[in-house]
């Protein structure tokens, strides 16, 4: 009779242990189920304020341009980037209206930069002068980062770049799948073009989009629809006209 009360605390302890283990398993399961959704939310929640003054300052900063060191965009990479956004040196914005692309352009191609923005592939490249190459990730979600390049962008579409002082309009003239080893597409050219690079569906190759410069204008004098596009949230896909 004296031993029975002693067994009750052990039983209660086991029940709480089972409940804790069950709760942990549920949390892990939910994390796995909603992994992509959480990752996409972290990417789209990056909404920096970019000004002509901040661009001028960031253009002078050092950056990593070795695209070979870029990692695949997993949950850990995005989470780490989201906590280190101060390491992204914004030097402008890109807008592709028909594809619903509106992203920050960061200097260099560090994993932090590419997790949340498009990255420049060569030091000292200038918008509107020669080749302006940019790299971006292709994600499972079709409307995040450079994914729309693969699913939507076509020859004839317009691409807009801005350093917050001027806006440069390019017209797509080439859509081509290339080998990942084609680093020559980053090289400077005599023609004033923009080169956008992202992964193909397999991840082993690359999709290259090229556009030719057709117009340069002051930011303040740009068409209202374009200024609204640049003023909208990044990765916002519902506000663009077919410019």
From TrEMBL:
Active site per the UniProt annotation: 137 (proton donor/acceptor), 199 (acyl-thioester intermediate)
GO molecular function: cysteine-type peptidase activity
Stored InterPro entries: Sortase, Sortase_A, Sortase_dom-sf
Stretch forming the signal peptide: none
Highest taxon in the source lineage: Bacteria
Sequence intervals crossing the membrane: 16-34
GO BP term, pick one: proteolysis
Keywords assigned: Hydrolase, Membrane, Protease, Thiol protease, Transmembrane, Transmembrane helix
Name the record gives this protein: Class A sortase
Organism: Secundilactobacillus paracollinoides
């Amino acid at each position: 009779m004296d031993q029975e009360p002693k067994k009750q605390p052990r039983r209660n302890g086991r029940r709480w242990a089972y409940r804790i283990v069950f709760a942990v398993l549920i949390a892990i399961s939910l994390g796995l189920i909603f992994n992509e959704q959480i990752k996409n939310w972290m990417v789209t929640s990056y909404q920096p304020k970019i000004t002509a003054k901040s661009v001028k300052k960031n253009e002078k900063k050092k950056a990593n341009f070795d695209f070979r060191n870029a990692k695949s965009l997993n949950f850990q990479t995005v989470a780490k980037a989201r906590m280190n956004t101060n390491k992204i040196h914004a030097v402008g914005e890109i807008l592709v209206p028909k594809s619903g692309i509106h992203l920050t352009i960061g200097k260099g191609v560090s994993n932090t930069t590419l997790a949340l923005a498009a990255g420049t592939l060569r030091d000292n490249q200038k918008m509107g002068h020669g080749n302006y190459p940019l790299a971006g990730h292709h994600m499972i979600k079709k409307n995040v980062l450079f994914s729309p390049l693969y699913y939507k962008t076509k020859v004839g579409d317009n691409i807009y770049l801005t350093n917050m002082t001027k806006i440069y309009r390019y017209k797509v003239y080439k859509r081509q799948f290339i080998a990942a080893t084609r680093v020559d597409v980053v090289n400077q050219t005599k023609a004033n073009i923009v080169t956008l690079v992202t992964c193909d569906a397999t991840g082993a190759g690359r999709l290259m989009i090229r556009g030719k410069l057709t117009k340069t204008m002051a930011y303040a004098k740009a068409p209202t629809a374009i200024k609204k596009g640049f003023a909208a949230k990044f990765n916002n896909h519902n506000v663009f006209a077919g410019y």
